[in-house]
């Protein structure tokens, strides 16, 4: 069946299998064994060296562990020629990464690169998969020590300990049992033990290769073990194996493995009886397995008849115990308990009938206590002597286990106390949060009440003041009226003067006008109040025959008009006390403060500072290049640091220069058209310098990232040309004219880059005009030429 689907790599079988890839993996399973173990202080790699011949030159192509970079090494299992090709790829990728980025390549990234290459060979026609599996050991600053494995399909996985090659399944199983967090010395002993049990030949120093990767003095080093060190490790392990064999010979063994399994399961089931209610189903399941083992023992007939009877009785008792636990009513449970025979001391019923039956059975069989004691002795002996060929723990390991158990108990107690403390703290925090919420709500309600009360008091004060003012005005009018009446009675000749004045005032219009001018200065504004009081006079009152009535009413009406104007002015202007305080503080201003008040009076920064909308604002744009930070060839982005000099006219005097925040004045919206960043404000809000002639100088420092077309054909000796195009985003050329501040870019503050050399810079102005739309777009371009510095290559 497979012959129809293994002719090409890219053909799947009906079962979804790629036979060519499976064949490559099968070739690896016949190669030499390679294993890797990750320890706390490093990573160990070990490999089997095959075809050892006395005529073979060891210095030529005899290595099984390869160094890929300063931080990464690997070992291979499979076809040697394929391994050489992949090793060259790995070393080239690692060296190229170090050359481009100035640091070592991360371990997982290098593994991914090779797996991508392997995977491509499983999808291309006319090529076969690589018959090599690799174990990678490395260290990087991101994840520390790492151990990876990759297969011919392009898949890779991370491991703590693993094995590839011949007998890898048995080696992985043994590593799974024996591995624990350990040091490199323990990892060496474990590697020797695994190779001892998995290799088809006797272990010798010339047949294996072992190396450890670790950190030393801040550097990653790969140390290969010498033949003498390997012989020492092999000798130590061989000595332990002999001691284990000697102890195994002395250990008593059970007569039958089935009986041993029965006894072990029986003892564990008895321990479950300590909590029958919870473990009832487990006891019932264990009873079924015990029955199967007991039937097998009857078939083999390996055990004595009295022991089989005792085993049968104990099995029946376990069944009854499980049935009792599964009964729901108390009466049924009591009936089941009475059926339990007197086997275990804790479950004795104490009945006479049971004792009589025990005496009868004791005549034919051994005492149940003796059998139980014998079974318990066998089980304890089994556990104590480790019948499954496990090495006895020495005193250090026992002490270590005891310390670990003690630390685990202490940690558990600390965890419980911490959990309780966190629970208490959580309750306290919850109460505090609720209390704070209530306090905040109370504060908000108090603020609302205070604001309402303040409004009410303000209205009340205004009303009281207004009432007082009306009383004062009425009183003043009354006194004035009495005074005027007395004056007219005492000085009757004044009527002629009033008559002439009124006639002059009522020449053509038949009305009298009174102008009251009041002025004051508040803050930054000059406020002038002009009231025109029109005194309507009926025509017939101003005729010659009724002038006496006009003379009698004119002073009184004039006084009412004056009082009305005074009341209106006081109601619509600040009080005299506030004006006095404002003028008092105004006198304490500095010259620059007064100038700033004058400049910003009726100033709007949202529009251009021109009186005529057709006028053009001239902006002089200059640059001071300070740094050339980066040239990203992959994304084609140039990052530099410049100073932008922006000029726009304003109108102020008195002081020749003043520095104010740039947010207070209008600034042109000059942007970098070919920016590689998002269009957000990247300028620092530095202060703007204002001169007396209306010139504004604003030098904001900024860092710009622009798009730049890069040709890396001659990398790293390439020559690149990058342009920066500046212009206004919303204004056209008739509104904003951008000109060059200087003939060239200021390089007085430029700091030379270690990676690129600045060859040439220049400034050009581009004017784009359209006759129909009558719009001009002013742009300014900055050209830079950069080549890599030879000192960085």
From TrEMBL:
InterPro entries: Neur_chan_lig-bd, Neur_chan_lig-bd_sf, Neurotransmitter_ion_chnl_CS, Ntn_hydrolases_N, Proteasome_alpha, Proteasome_alpha-type, Proteasome_asu_N, Proteasome_bsu_CS. It is found in: Endoplasmic reticulum membrane; Nucleus. Pfam families: Neur_chan_LBD, Proteasome, Proteasome_A_N, Use1. Residues 223-250, 283-321 form a coiled coil. It is a single-pass type IV membrane protein. Residues 769-793 are annotated as: Disordered. GO terms for biological process: protein transport; ubiquitin-dependent protein catabolic process; vesicle-mediated transport. Signal peptide: none annotated. Keywords: Coiled coil, Cytoplasm, Endoplasmic reticulum, ER-Golgi transport, Membrane, Nucleus, Proteasome, Protein transport, Transmembrane, Transmembrane helix, Transport. SUPFAM superfamilies: N-terminal nucleophile aminohydrolases (Ntn hydrolases) (SSF56235), Nicotinic receptor ligand binding domain-like (SSF63712). Residues 5-27 form the Proteasome alpha-type subunits domain. CDD domains: LGIC_ECD_nAChR, proteasome_alpha_type_4, SNARE_USE1. It comes from the Eukaryota. PROSITE patterns: NEUROTR_ION_CHANNEL (PS00236), PROTEASOME_ALPHA_1 (PS00388), PROTEASOME_ALPHA_2 (PS51475), PROTEASOME_BETA_1 (PS00854). Residues 769-782 have a biased composition (Basic and acidic residues). GO terms for cellular component: endoplasmic reticulum membrane; nucleus; proteasome core complex, alpha-subunit complex. GO terms for molecular function: extracellular ligand-gated monoatomic ion channel activity. The chain crosses the membrane at residues 469-491. Belongs to the USE1 family. Belongs to the peptidase T1A family. PANTHER family: PROTEASOME SUBUNIT ALPHA/BETA (PTHR11599). The proteasome is a multicatalytic proteinase complex which is characterized by its ability to cleave peptides with Arg, Phe, Tyr, Leu, and Glu adjacent to the leaving group at neutral or slightly basic pH. The proteasome has an ATP-dependent proteolytic activity. This is Proteasome subunit alpha type-4.
